[in-house]
Design a protein that fits this description.
The protein is of the alpha+beta class. The protein has helices at 2-21, 36-47, 63-73, 93-103, and strands at 106-107, 118-121, 132-139, 143-151, 154-161, 166-170.
Length: 172
């Protein structure tokens, strides 16, 4: 089982790097053909409570959707809704955090992340906690190299300092 987990984690980092390097961009509505593959898995579930989500021209913040898409592509079996008895999908950074705590997969900022681990941020792109996430590609002494979606509405590769803005990590 460990070999399968290692293979998926390696694939996740590889796929994330490939997608990050594409610099895919959403349109003014945070939607569009370049990023629809990240948003599409969430449309049916979100459309149950709000039909406008069924419209592919309607977008939303999509960093968590980027991570979900790549995790599933790498072979992780993740239901779109981490908690079946309540609202919320893996399209929300907060859901990833709650799920990781519940599953014992959350690691605090003292953890040394590995390629394929997820990274959660506080107040990186807004004034809110748990406002962004990405996938670790490399762990350096004072920073991480990450692949992220929805940074200025684009995918990319980033150098992120290991500082107070990191909430923690998720080890899938």
């Amino acid at each position: 089982m460990v070999a399968l987990a290692d293979l998926r984690k390696k694939k996740l980092a590889q796929f994330a790097k490939e997608e990050g390097l594409l610099n895919l961009k959403g349109d003014i509505n945070k939607a569009g053909h370049e990023i629809e593959k990240f948003l599409a898995p969430f449309r049916k579930e979100l459309g149950k409570s709000n039909p406008r989500f069924l419209d592919p021209t309607f977008g939303a913040d999509w960093c968590a959707a980027f991570v979900y898409y790549l995790a599933v592509k790498a072979g992780y079996d993740l239901d779109i809704k981490p908690f079946q008895n309540r609202r919320g999908t893996f399209g929300l950074v907060g859901m990833w955090f709650e799920w990781s705590i519940n599953e014992g997969k959350f690691k605090d900022i003292l953890y040394e992340p590995e390629p394929g681990d997820l990274i959660l941020y506080d107040r990186l792109v807004s004034d809110s906690e748990l406002d962004h996430m990405g996938i670790v590609l490399e762990n350096k002494d004072k920073h991480c190299i990450t692949a992220e979606g929805n940074v200025n509405n684009m995918t990319g590769i980033f150098r992120r300092a290991k500082n107070y803005q990191i909430k923690g990590y998720i080890r899938l």
